Amino acid sequence: MPRIAWVTNVGAPYRHRVWAAMAHATELQVGLLADNEPNRRWSADLPTGVPRLRTKAVALHRGKLHLYLLRRPALHGRLDVVILPGWELPASWQLLIEAKLRRVRTVAFYESSAGSHRFATGPVAFLRRRYFRSVDAVVTVGEASTRAVLGFGVSAERVVRTDNTVDVAAIHSAAQGASVEDRRDTYICLGQLIHRKNVDGLLEAFAKLPASARLVVAGEGPEEASLRARASRLGVSDRVDFRGYVPYAQVPELLSEAATLVLASRTEVYGLVVVEALAGGLHVVVADNSGVFADVRELTGVFPAQSTPASIASAMCRSAEDWTGPVDQPTILARTPEAMADDVVRACAVARARR
Predict the structure, then answer these.
(1) pLDDT for residue 119 is more than 90
(2) E-only strand ranges, 246-305
(3) pTM of the complete model
């Protein structure tokens, strides 16, 4: 079996089933650059049967930006392929150089899209192109990120597209809760309370809805106080439930309270919460500038919106009008962690076959 090391920032719980599936087909190790990050509350534990690669990194935090620098070489023993973390990390460039010196093949994992790039030209854009042309294969997670990588000049035969996913079956099973009528006018926003998430714009949109509507805001962040104040000024504070931090294991139960999830972000690299909501049978209002939009726009229960209060409010109303209950067998259930694991293993085979 191929010997693979997957190095990533932190142990995101939605990747556990992917790693567990890969461990059945490969000799997989997972390396974490940090046990956690300031804006996360995730466990550093890995799935049973997935050994941890010994990595030691220094973390540099500037606001929401987390950069990691390896303090020592990380690739130990015999390896065939290393899956690299985000290209913008110094640790990724260190791993890329270390892998080339050791003749270990490299795979980049890319979730972003051209719309979320902060630098389209200049030295940063040049380095990004250079990085992706230097690896042996790239895993992309949908239409938008695939277009972006091809735009970097990476040949199509080195790109393996997968579906960015979570444990959709488990979420679908767990997210069965309140009655249909109880949920119709209930909306949920799940994520960090930061500027780019556009929760302020969502509150403006919500204020345009009928008085029967309810909004659950689940998450924490630096904008919480200002958002509470805005809800009060808009006269909707009695209909907005600021729930605070919700552990990942409780997300399915939380989703079962609402009919519609709203992702109103001003900019969004991907937006896996949309996949989680669709797996739970919910409708979703999705900002059309998010990475996930291109991958779900044709699915049942998806209502596109621009990141303006008027557009968001219109999509929320259309969702409520169309609601007849949770979607019984969402198409998203076909996008399993096991299928994603197969695609990543295939990308590793592409990398190994490259001359």
Answers:
(1) no
(2) 260-263, 283-287, 302-305
(3) 0.92
